[in-house]
Specification:
Layout lengths: L1 H14 L4 H8 L3 H8 L7 H11 L3 H4 L17 H11 L4 H8 L3 H8 L7 H11 L3 H5 L4
């Protein structure tokens, strides 16, 4: 995933003729972190992947190599995760307790997401997407 993300980011920077400084400023990501992504030292935190996807109007799934480039798709800016998380729970008639039992994700972590205290990690977001049978973009409420 790291290699795919790095290549996708390099392509985005070249296509948009952005310097690293411009990219960091535009996406509101720390410049040193952005350089680490380009060197392939790490995959960004999930929240930073979302910022990058929002900056370029692209799919989170595409940036992580989980889906092909969406030719004619439109992605809305990411709403607050707590809002989308509540919607998914309601749509699936699911309590946080049941989701905890089904996925093994700690109830206090689910409560944090529910109350908007933080976003899930990439690993937990993938677990949720699998559980809800959706893409990461659908999980985030970005698909338009």
């Amino acid at each position: 995933m790291e290699s795919y993300f790095r290549d996708a980011l390099l392509e985005l920077l070249n296509d948009n003729q952005l310097s690293m400084e411009q990219f960091a400023q535009k996406s509101k990501i720390n410049l040193s972190e952005a350089y680490r992504y380009l060197r392939g030292e790490c995959v960004p935190k999930f929240s930073n992947v979302v910022k990058i996807a929002d900056t370029f109007g692209l799919s989170v799934d595409y940036l992580l190599g989980l889906a092909p480039y969406p030719e004619h798709a439109y992605f809305r800016p990411t709403p607050a995760f707590s809002q989308r998380f509540r919607e998914l729970l309601a749509q699936n008639n699911l309590s946080r307790y049941q989701l905890c039992k089904d996925t093994g994700i700690a109830i206090n972590r689910l409560d944090d997401w529910y109350h908007g205290r933080c976003m899930p990690s990439l690993e937990k977001a993938l677990t949720l997407a699998k559980h809800f049978h959706c893409s990461l973009d659908e999980l985030l409420g970005r698909e338009g």
